[in-house]
Amino acid sequence: MSRHPHIAATDPELDDLLGQEERRQAECIRLIPSENYVSSAVLEATGSVLTNKYSEGYPGRRYYEGQQVIDQVEQLARDRAKALFSADFANVQPYSGSPANLAVYFAFCQPGDTVMGMALPHGGHLTHGWNVSISGAYFNSVQYGVDRETQRIDYDQVRALALEHRPKLLWAGATAYPRVIDFEAFASIAKEIDALFIADIAHIAGLVAGGAHPSPVPHADVVTTTTHKTLRGPRGGMILCKKAHRKKINAAVFPGLQGGPHNHTTAALAVALKEAATPAFKQYAAQIVQNSRALAEALLARGFDLVTGGSDNHLLLIDLTAKNVPGKVAAQALDRAGIVCNYNTVPFDPRKPFDPSGLRLGTPAITSRGMGLEQMKQLGHWIDQVVAAPEDETVIARIRGEVIELCAQFPAPGLAD
Ligand SMILES: *Cc1c(COP(=O)(O)O)cnc(C)c1O
Fold this sequence. Notes:
- The protein is about 45% helix and about 15% strand.
- By secondary structure, it is of the alpha/beta class.
- The protein has two domains: about 45-275, Type I PLP-dependent aspartate aminotransferase-like (Major domain) (Aspartate Aminotransferase, domain 2); about 285-410, Alpha-Beta Complex (Aspartate Aminotransferase, domain 1), CATH 3.90.1150.
- Strands 4-10-9-8-7-5-6 form a seven-stranded mixed β-sheet, with helices on both faces. Strands 11-12-15-14 form a four-stranded antiparallel β-sheet.
- Helix 4 runs parallel beside helix 11, helix 5 crosses helix 10 and helix 12 runs parallel beside helix 15.
- The chain is globular and about 60 Å long.
- The mean pLDDT is about 95.
- Bound molecules: pyridoxal-5'-phosphate.
- Pyridoxal-5'-phosphate binds near residues 101, 125, 127 and 174.
């Protein structure tokens, strides 16, 4: 039986595809650290009639009539965001994380200005000045990395580069960094050179909200985030900032970069922010980190090399060099076994970005399913078996069956209820 009888009636072809994807999400162990399962309540809000409404502008100042309800929805989302993160101000309109970051550039920079962020191959995000992104093409981008020995951010190097190049914006935040980021250290470097400090917490917003990672909000001029990763909301973006930057940020998002906000997403974000303010979410955030540490231990015990030697957030980076298996081969074999992750570069990777040495794993989605320490041990065992024999389809098929059985014991939010 379809979960969407109306789609089934009007578009059986798409209904079939949705059914296939639902089954895949239910029956796979999702270790992609940027993915999660939203609750049924968040899912309902994203499918609500708010998708029908235009509302360019901000609450109380719109360019369309009929905002009696939408204004309240957006205000609710803003108020909940401010309360959850103890922020002065929240803009909940960015369509996603990348537009949120682009809005920050537009708010404070002119093309050609110097900006500084973490290099993509060292775990940074495209939008922090990497050359193929508009952020690297339109600005004079200086990139910092991790230390070759410790594989951690080298704050002395960041400071030295900042003093030398004097960027207007200093970005902190990452997509593939398994350790706590010292936002206070970044803030003090930015202060020294009179730069604005921008913290991008896309990956860790849920950990910050749940108290499992220190918050950058007291230290940063602006904090950007996606809403769909550890925060477990709809696909979207959000910008928090100090009062002094409120006008510039608002003008940069609309009319600077975007037209009408996606009101159904704003509503879903409001729901997710309410969920994230509960004691259960605090526990969830703590469990993500415990699971990540347990998975790290299980992998280390089986002889895997982990970048930085472990994890203290939601994410792990395996360096497969010593196992003699390319990241992509391992990721594809794991996918066939029902364990979904991504191949990823490791710092100073001798291989190419499209065929790198590493695997990136994370625990947010499996923690949403209620998996715990025992399942992390099991996962370490399965990953080890697949990586040891990535072409052994018998082993892979056996594990695929076991994965389906385990998934049945841990129904995913939004899919099961
Ligand atoms: C995911 C991510 C983004 C971009 O988010 P999109 O919603 O994919 O555009 C930006 N910054 C960081 C650090 C991220 O991890």
